[in-house]
Amino acid sequence: MITGKITAIGKEAIDADEKLLIFFDNSATKGLKPYAIIQDVPKADAITLNKGDEIRFGEAKYTVTHVGNTALKGLHEIQHASFIFDEVPVTDSIVNGVYLTPFEVPQLEVGMTITYP
User: Among the four residues 60, 99, 106, 112, which has the most C-beta atoms within 10 Å?
Assistant: First the structure.
Protein backbone atom coordinates (compact mmCIF):
# COMPACT_ATOMS: atom_id res chain seq x y z
CA MET A 1 0.00 0.00 0.00
CA ILE A 2 1.10 3.53 -0.77
CA THR A 3 -0.03 6.37 1.46
CA GLY A 4 -0.18 10.06 0.67
CA LYS A 5 -1.55 13.10 2.43
CA ILE A 6 -3.83 15.95 1.38
CA THR A 7 -1.86 19.18 1.78
CA ALA A 8 -4.37 21.69 0.35
CA ILE A 9 -7.94 21.86 -0.90
CA GLY A 10 -8.87 24.59 -3.39
CA LYS A 11 -11.90 26.75 -2.62
CA GLU A 12 -13.71 25.41 -5.70
CA ALA A 13 -12.39 21.82 -5.49
CA ILE A 14 -15.48 20.28 -3.90
CA ASP A 15 -18.92 20.92 -5.35
CA ALA A 16 -21.90 19.15 -3.77
CA ASP A 17 -23.48 18.77 -7.23
CA GLU A 18 -20.42 17.23 -8.87
CA LYS A 19 -19.21 13.67 -8.33
CA LEU A 20 -15.66 14.55 -9.32
CA LEU A 21 -12.48 15.38 -7.41
CA ILE A 22 -9.33 16.50 -9.21
CA PHE A 23 -6.03 15.68 -7.53
CA PHE A 24 -2.55 17.05 -8.29
CA ASP A 25 0.78 17.40 -6.56
CA ASN A 26 2.09 20.82 -5.55
CA SER A 27 3.16 21.56 -9.14
CA ALA A 28 -0.46 22.35 -10.11
CA THR A 29 -0.63 25.73 -11.80
CA LYS A 30 -1.97 28.79 -10.04
CA GLY A 31 -5.04 28.61 -12.29
CA LEU A 32 -5.74 24.97 -11.35
CA LYS A 33 -5.15 25.16 -7.60
CA PRO A 34 -8.58 26.66 -6.74
CA TYR A 35 -10.20 23.58 -8.37
CA ALA A 36 -7.75 20.95 -7.15
CA ILE A 37 -6.97 18.85 -4.13
CA ILE A 38 -3.21 18.86 -3.62
CA GLN A 39 -1.67 15.63 -2.41
CA ASP A 40 1.80 14.56 -1.43
CA VAL A 41 2.46 10.90 -2.22
CA PRO A 42 6.16 10.07 -1.65
CA LYS A 43 6.11 6.91 -3.81
CA ALA A 44 3.54 7.98 -6.41
CA ASP A 45 5.55 6.36 -9.21
CA ALA A 46 4.84 2.95 -7.65
CA ILE A 47 1.02 3.29 -7.59
CA THR A 48 -0.85 0.55 -9.40
CA LEU A 49 -4.60 0.64 -9.93
CA ASN A 50 -6.83 -2.05 -11.34
CA LYS A 51 -10.53 -2.68 -11.42
CA GLY A 52 -11.55 -4.10 -8.03
CA ASP A 53 -8.72 -2.39 -6.09
CA GLU A 54 -9.49 -0.30 -3.02
CA ILE A 55 -8.59 3.35 -2.42
CA ARG A 56 -9.12 4.93 1.00
CA PHE A 57 -9.74 8.59 1.69
CA GLY A 58 -9.11 8.67 5.42
CA GLU A 59 -11.24 5.76 6.68
CA ALA A 60 -13.71 5.85 3.76
CA LYS A 61 -13.21 2.87 1.44
CA TYR A 62 -13.89 2.97 -2.30
CA THR A 63 -13.63 0.30 -4.97
CA VAL A 64 -12.11 1.06 -8.37
CA THR A 65 -14.57 0.29 -11.19
CA HIS A 66 -12.51 1.70 -14.09
CA VAL A 67 -9.05 3.20 -14.67
CA GLY A 68 -8.71 5.59 -17.62
CA ASN A 69 -5.91 5.14 -20.17
CA THR A 70 -3.76 7.97 -18.81
CA ALA A 71 -4.68 7.86 -15.12
CA LEU A 72 -1.60 5.97 -13.93
CA LYS A 73 0.77 8.10 -16.02
CA GLY A 74 -0.69 11.24 -14.43
CA LEU A 75 -0.48 9.79 -10.92
CA HIS A 76 3.12 8.71 -11.47
CA GLU A 77 4.32 12.00 -12.97
CA ILE A 78 2.37 14.77 -11.19
CA GLN A 79 0.10 12.84 -8.80
CA HIS A 80 -2.81 13.86 -11.03
CA ALA A 81 -6.05 11.96 -11.45
CA SER A 82 -9.73 12.75 -11.61
CA PHE A 83 -11.62 10.62 -9.11
CA ILE A 84 -15.18 10.10 -10.32
CA PHE A 85 -17.87 8.79 -7.99
CA ASP A 86 -20.32 7.71 -10.66
CA GLU A 87 -21.09 5.06 -13.27
CA VAL A 88 -18.53 4.51 -16.01
CA PRO A 89 -20.06 5.85 -19.23
CA VAL A 90 -20.37 3.41 -22.13
CA THR A 91 -18.49 5.88 -24.34
CA ASP A 92 -16.30 8.86 -23.58
CA SER A 93 -15.02 7.92 -20.14
CA ILE A 94 -12.52 10.40 -18.75
CA VAL A 95 -9.05 9.27 -19.86
CA ASN A 96 -7.34 10.38 -16.65
CA GLY A 97 -10.30 9.24 -14.57
CA VAL A 98 -10.45 6.70 -11.80
CA TYR A 99 -14.07 5.68 -11.35
CA LEU A 100 -15.05 4.63 -7.85
CA THR A 101 -17.96 3.16 -5.94
CA PRO A 102 -19.87 3.94 -3.75
CA PHE A 103 -21.14 6.99 -5.65
CA GLU A 104 -20.70 9.32 -2.71
CA VAL A 105 -17.96 11.96 -2.64
CA PRO A 106 -15.90 11.56 0.55
CA GLN A 107 -15.56 14.32 3.12
CA LEU A 108 -12.00 15.56 2.75
CA GLU A 109 -9.79 17.74 4.91
CA VAL A 110 -6.19 18.93 4.88
CA GLY A 111 -3.96 16.36 6.59
CA MET A 112 -6.17 13.41 5.64
CA THR A 113 -4.40 10.34 4.29
CA ILE A 114 -5.09 8.70 0.95
CA THR A 115 -4.18 5.06 0.67
CA TYR A 116 -3.57 3.48 -2.71
CA PRO A 117 -3.20 -0.29 -3.27
Answer: 99
